[in-house]
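A quick aside before the break. I want you to see a complete sequence-to-structure record at least once, exactly as it would be stored in a machine-readable document. Don't worry about memorizing anything.
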Amino acid sequence: MHILITGGCGYIGSHVAVRLIEQGYQVTILDILFNSKHDVLDRIFNITKIRPEFIQADVRDRYVLQRIFDAEHYDAVIHLAGLKSISESCANPLMYYDNNVNGSLQVVNSMKRYGIKNIIIGSSATVYGTSSSVKLSEDMPITVGTSPYAQTKITTELLLRDVYNADKTMSVGVLRYFNPAGAHPSGLLGEDPVGVPDNLLPYITQVVSGKREYLTIYGNDYPTPDGTCIRDYIHVADLAEGHVAMLKYMFNHPGYHVYNLGSGKGVSVKQIVDVYNRILDKPIPYRYGQRRQGDIAEYIADITKAEKDLNWHVKYTIEDIVKDAHKWQCNISK
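That is the input. The structure line, written in tokens, reads:
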């Protein structure tokens, strides 16, 4: 089967590409390389010994998509292209709606035009907003996001739901990510953001490597045991495996499917720092800063549905996440 991955040179997309190739799928990557790098293709090759076809293009360009779908048939699209910074979305919401919502619209339009029926999209736990429940399950309502980023994810989900309701021959998989972290266990592939990292783990690893002076922890006055935000961190390898499980499931069970992908466990920002301190046996310098707009105190995934339907289970611990992230940072710092 031939799978098109939009945003496939990105952090999550590249790990999904590796796992699909290892499972015998033919993979084509479409990426504009806005916040990713071309050498990711070399890293994928070093792990799998197969270099995926690469197309540098913008998913918002429907004429480019037309040429791509004219040239090749794809059995499914895994749509991961988009922007993901909560703080940046608050500062520039128009850019986020254009990339995340318009980009998704153009991809789905092109799929419909060429009779491609299967799509998996990367969504986010932020769609749950300020739910009163800490443990979040897929049957909870999604209404108004706490940031423009979150709202683009909600809008995209509703778009795909409406497309499916209008055409039940479509098969849609919505994967709500919690907090992807870590790196490929080989140390050959990981998160390498352009500019200042927006996610916790790559920022910490850059502090550890000496690239940055200290870590800023945004907020220490949340209603949590240590005052810092609690998140559900999932190893990126487990997340990638979730995409493979979703793909296999949807081919056998057409429909509109929504699943949480997390570890099912909560860890605070300060606890992450403590894990680093313990594993590396040296203190990580950090300072407390003001809360960031759009952040909420705590959320954890209920992963019961994914475990049952997809036969998917988390294999990696928070210690594995930290060790693999550190191994990756040491490799790219050489």
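Two observations worth writing down. Residues 2-181+233-262 form a domain with the Rossmann fold fold (CATH 3.40.50.720). The mean pLDDT is 93. We'll return to this after the break.
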